[in-house]
Fold Nicotinamidase-related amidase.
Amino acid sequence: MRQKLATRHDTGAAADRYKWVALANTTAAVFMSVLDGSIVLIALPAIFRGIHLDPLAPGNVGYLLWMIMGYRLVQAVFVVPVGRLGDMFGRVKIYNYGFAVFTIASILLSFDPFHGGRGAVWLIGWRMLQAIGGSMLTANSAAILTDAFPADQRGFALGINQVAGLAGQFIGLVAGGLLAIWDWRAVFWVNVPVGVFGTLWAYRRLHDNGERNPGRIDWWGNITFAVGLSAVLVAITNGIHPYRDHAMGWANPQVYGLLAGGVVLLGVFGVIESRVAEPMFQIGLLRIRAFTAGNAASFATRLAQGGLQFMLIIWLQGIWLPLHGYDYSDTPLWAGIFLLPLTGGFLVAGPVSGLLSDRFGARGFATAGMVVFGASFVGLMLLPVDFPYWAFALLIALNGVGTGMFSSPNSSAIMSSVPARQRGAASGMRSTFQNSGTSLSIGVFFSLMIAGLAGSLPHTLTSGLQRQGVPSGVAHQVGGLPPVSSLFAAILGVNPIRTLLAPSGALSGLPVANQRTLTGREFFPHLISAPFHHGLVVVFAVSTALAALAALASLLRGGRVTPSTGTPLPARTPLPARTPLEKDTMALSTIDPKPALVVIDLQKGILTIPAAHPIEEVVRRSANLAEAFRRHHLPVVLVNATGRAPGRTEAGSAMPADFTPPPDWADLADELDVQPEDHLVTKTTWGAFHETPLHARLQELGVTQVVLTGVATSAGVESTARAAHEHGYHVVLATDAMTDRDADAHQNSVERIFPKLGETATTDEILDLLEKTRPEAGV
């Protein structure tokens, strides 16, 4: 006995150590992956100088756009397929491959052998491979953490993970500025030691402890999804790019062709996924309310937030920092520093809200976070262009706090709401909604801003240049340039007017005083501030509306997530007091959209065996549940047993070995009132899943939750509950609709075994919650 206890203690200690290893490794991976999406942004001037390419020259803006957008686009497309591969072949295995791919791509990026356009293509291509490695990391990290941590600690773990992600996004701005001063290649070298160490660490210490869901790859689903989403995102990216004499590419028929083709392919993808046996995108998960509402809120949040970084950088680098005495060449580094309150707000709120949501539920924290998030955008709209920094810092810190309050609880609720065997696919879907929202946000924000600037900037810029003596022809030529050139000049930290006038050589022919005015720190900010502020108001107003939608979706997710199954808890009403026998069990939280009632062995032969509780009550309550499930058009599965498994002896069986059952021994109790639509399953062992079609039938019906009743509690019911739990179903046990020959055995199952497998409730509690969650069906 002592040896067994020692073994259990060692196993528990090992599991406790492992979860912290998993958290540390995945946090480093997520930080590295997200950091690389922003570190390049600040280093772009140094990178383009290193490959001898002027990104603002005619025809080169596309290289700049794809350096910024390509990484996020690839991540948006690939996270679902690699998440599904993690479910099929092992989450840790795919995660380890991701570390290796990311590291190899980082090495290749730093050894660009080309210059000019070819050098840019080299960088864009390997950045996309790097993004695939990053997708393999981010798609599986949340699933690995969900496997490793118990449900009552997942919010904290995922909160730390998400804090690392956002911290990487903004720390990358500062790191990119510092490393680019040394060498542009250093922004890629920094990943190499982390990647090598992380790969070896993950290979040696991480292991798959989640459930596997093997199957075939959904090739047509993967192809239509990848091509369709890519077409939509490429179209939006091209929409920012100038087209002929238009400020943006929305006049380009190719953009609309890509959009239409992408939408059609995504529609075809939806049809394919609803029909194939093993889909890549688990459409069935969208029937889980907490999963759908959480992802809808997450998508709206990323749509509101994704382009925020660029707008704030342009605001700081193009206007505020020059007005406050900073040289244009220094603005990229200082913009990253001045944006640190945003990271600080998230760093504080993320782990705290994750920890508290484990105890009090996700809905309140996530919804309140979106209210704070939306309020920060209202405050930013009201700021003047030349703002007092304390007010700006306070508002972006509130924005970070709101995001932190939302992100950790929301991710925990999403991941806890799905069966264990589908966590990889669920994590991939979650990341797809987030990355797609970010990519769309960048395109939408830039389009709104450029549209606002296009109406007034050309005239303002032309007249301002003419007042400083620039020849009329040159002034009109510069004023007619696409506004995107001015915006990207601000992002790249170059002097906008010097850059715009350089091709004509007009600047050198002006008086020295005029040259100083044009290239000084005040001319361009004053020129652009009014039209830019108008665009900011439009952008932040859209973000405020999206934050309100995210708050509404979060509010509609359902209530608290329980530690046992992760299912959303509806608004609670007082339940009848539980009996002393059930005082330590996990109470029922909700009924899934598609549950099934499974009644075990309530057959005439077994019902004659003496039981610890009145068998008539067990049958009556089971019959009441069956009638209610039928009325709500939910599956009822009636299980009976015949004989014994071949070659098996039943130690302790109530029946002698030579027992010959009467003809009606396996007939179900008359009180169950078997109906034609009921599903009948016959077994030869204790459990109803072993060598029966039960699991396949439940999968065909889309069932995610099983409610168990019947006899015997410690044999047929417990064995079936264990198998249901291992298959990934949410398990509910109607403890007053089951019994056993031995009262102690019944009590042991109810108090010690069932809380580990699912939730328990009385028949009345289940019936009450069934009516509350399906009022329309009860009419």
Observations:
- Residues 2-50 form the longest helix (49 residues).
- The two ends are 57 Å apart (CA to CA).
- The chain is about 65% helix and 5% strand.
- The CA atoms of residues 58 and 309 lie 26 Å apart.
